[in-house]
Design a protein that fits this description.
Length: 321
């Protein structure tokens, strides 16, 4: 019995030593890969100082109206995500895609992701970069909160909002889903496991499935998207946004007054899979404007603009005119 216990003890020690070596090797692999990625991951637009940190803005187009894009939670590179809309918009309107802190090419910040802090940062970025209102905001998913809050704080600068499967503030405020800390995923990232998995084409394709496989995104931008995902996901700012969303939603709801400008709510049909609670709040989202309409977009998932960029562009231009 004693010999068996000694052997078991040695096996456990050897096993733990092997695990520690593998984890250490994976961590070194991840650090080396991150340094390599950062050398090629250069801003697509320009960096501007906002509260002492670098914040990224990509702009283009022409016209009297500027369309400002607010990405959803966890969308690592907004410049890539909204790219299917640029070509059609550019001849008619200006556009500006910002990266919140923690996203895209922007720095991370030590400031908590309170909705007023986020909104003030966006406003400052638009000012220091020389953008001129009126703005037409396009908000995807959780980006709906900052678009509405921006309009509440700076009503004279907004002429309309298009929600691309954006959740209503009431939906987020009443959401009872638990917020996970993501520790396990962070460990997989830090030890290079996630990066190694993304060497598989099937894993990459699976990760893009909710975005229609990035069907309308050029191959060079798909590479940027992959690099951004490996560099940005699970950072402190992105995680704090998730922790704060109920508090942020309450701030927006408590200041609710129907907007005088148009609001278009584009809602995904989730490829025919019903979600009664989401659909209920989407239909009620029109109460946020005196000039509101909702349109359910068939045969799409949550990233509607990756399925029907033509339709989304048309709705944006309709409000811009």
């Amino acid at each position: 019995m004693k010999k068996w216990l000694n052997r078991l003890g040695k096996t456990v020690v050897i096993g733990l030593a092997v695990i520690l070596v593998l984890l250490g090797s994976g961590a070194i692999y991840e650090q080396v890969s991150v340094r390599k990625d950062l050398k090629s991951y250069t801003p697509s637009g320009k960096l501007y100082k906002v509260d002492g940190k670098n914040m990224h803005l990509y702009t283009g187009g022409q016209g009297d109206v500027t369309v400002v894009f607010a990405s959803g939670w966890g969308t690592a590179n907004p410049y890539v995500d909204f790219s299917p809309l640029y070509e059609k918009l550019a001849p008619h309107v200006k556009f500006a895609v910002y990266d919140r802190f923690g996203y895209g090419y922007s720095d991370t910040t030590d400031k908590k992701r309170n909705i007023d802090t986020i909104t003030n940062e966006i406003h400052e970025l638009l000012q220091v970069s020389g953008q001129k209102p009126p703005y037409l905001f396009v908000g995807h998913s959780l980006g709906s909160l900052e678009t509405i809050r921006f309009a509440q704080k700076y009503p004279g600068e907004v002429k309309g909002i298009v929600m691309v499967d954006g959740g209503s503030p009431e939906y987020y405020y009443n959401d009872t889903a638990p917020v996970l800390d993501g520790f396990g995923k962070k460990l997989l990232i830090k030890t290079g496991v996630i990066r190694m998995l993304f060497h598989s084409d099937s894993v990459i394709e699976s990760s893009r499935s909710i975005r229609n496989g990035l069907k309308f995104v050029p191959d060079d931008l798909k590479k940027i998207d992959l690099t951004a995902s490996l560099l940005k996901l699970e950072n402190a700012n992105i995680q704090d946004e998730l922790r704060q969303f109920k508090v942020n939603a309450k701030i927006v709801v408590d200041d609710k007054k129907p907007f005088p400008f148009p609001l278009t709510v584009l809602t995904s049909d989730y490829l025919g899979v019903k979600n009664d609670e989401w659909n209920k709040y989407e239909a009620e989202f029109t109460s946020w404007s005196l000039q509101a309409k909702q349109y359910v977009v068939k045969d799409t998932e949550h990233y509607i603009h990756q399925y029907r960029p033509d339709l989304v562009s048309d709705e944006i231009l309709s409000l811009a005119k």
